[in-house]
Amino acid sequence: MIHVRELVKAYDDLRRGKFVAVDHVSLFAMPGQIYGLLGPNGAGKTTVLRILSTVLKPTSGSVQVNGYDVVMEPAMVRRQIGFVSTNTAVYERMTAWETVEYFGRLYGIEKDQLDERMNTIFRRLRMDEMRDVLGSKMSTGMKQKVSIARAIVHDPPVLVFDEPTLGLDVFVGRALLQIIAELREQGKCIIFSSHIMREVEKLCDQVAIMYKGKILAEGSQAELRDRYSQPDLEEIFFHLIGEPEDMADYAGAEQSENA
Ligand SMILES: Nc1ncnc2c1ncn2[C@@H]1O[C@H](COP(=O)(O)OP(=O)(O)OP(=O)(O)O)[C@@H](O)[C@H]1O
Q: Which atom of ligand 1 lies closest to the CA of 253?
């Protein structure tokens, strides 16, 4: 379970001065559910997820992961979470098996239990054929599977996916979404951030639409469609922000992408 209350993150930016990247964000995600954080580049999604996984400290507000507070009990929070993003590192000189084993050991899992768990994970993620492939020889899709395997090796109840399909082709992207749906069936609490409306539409039970640091709307997809009388998430999004008159509206996002 993830409980975010009135979360604020302000940066002291040399160029922009004090910049509020996350502005009083509240959300609640349950086990067995995929919670979608949908928003364009620069909306503040990654900042929320980094605070959730204890990489960044909040300016104010509170975040609890399975009852543990991210500021007071960061080590316990890290045990609850598996984090997957597009640029999760895969070591060039380690095989798929060695990489996942290494992370399992970091979490202090006993050898026998680790072997058993890894066998299950490799089978479930259809990674058996790539056990001995070195990081330097892996395709992007293989690397992404290794990233998922290392994120779930300690069997965390909470999984965070930050734009996980970025740069993947349609086959690998689809397989990845299927894996995430399977993890939901296992009762995991999943946060899935994306700017791709179609993906969020397919996968997510609850959706928060985020823009310029704020959550503009939150609910199940059916609730959101009803509330705003719009047929899909894209229409709801533009209904909420208004049609941008020119790309000046989008300047902040461009900067973030290049940062
Ligand atoms: N260290 C920092 N200092 C100053 N501003 C920052 C810093 N990190 C992020 N920001 C700004 O905070 C805003 C939100 O960034 P964030 O990465 O959370 O957005 P996002 O929704 O994840 O988008 P993206 O998909 O581009 O990563 C952006 O305007 C970004 O430039």
A: 29
Question: Within the chain, what is the greatest distance between any pair of CA atoms?
Answer: 60
Closest CA to 39 of 15, 23, 56, 57: 23
Per-residue pLDDT at 150? 92
* Residue 178 burial (10 A CB sphere; 0-12, 13-18, 19+): exposed
Q: What is the C-alpha to C-alpha distance for residues 153 and 73, in angstroms, rounded to an integer?
A: 21
pLDDT tens-place string over residues 148-192: 899 999 999 999 999 988 877 787 788 889 889 999 999 999 999
**What is the identity of the amino acid at 128?**
D
Distance (Å, whole) CA 176 – CA 141: 9
Cβ atoms of 130 and 142 within 8 Å: the answer is: yes
Q: Which atom of ligand 1 is nearest to the CA of 210?
A: 21
Between vectors from CA 143 to CA 139 and to CA 147, what angle results, nearest 5°? 170
How confident is the model at residue 161, as a pLDDT? 94
Residue 194 is encoded by which pair of tokens?
């994306």
Using CA positions, which residue lies closest to atom 30 of ligand 1? Answer: 256
The residue count for the chain: 259
- Give the integer Cα–Cα distance in Å for 153 and 156: 8
Domain map of the chain by residue range? Answer: 2-258
Structure tokens belonging to residue 109: 């899992």
Question: What is the sign of the dihedral through the CA atoms of 228, 229, 233 and 237?
Answer: negative
Which pLDDT value is given to residue 18? 87
The CATH superfamily holding the domain 2-258 is P-loop containing nucleotide triphosphate hydrolases (3.40.50.300)
Ligand 1 — pocket residues by CB below 6 A? Answer: 11, 13, 19, 21, 39, 41-47, 163, 252, 255-257, 259
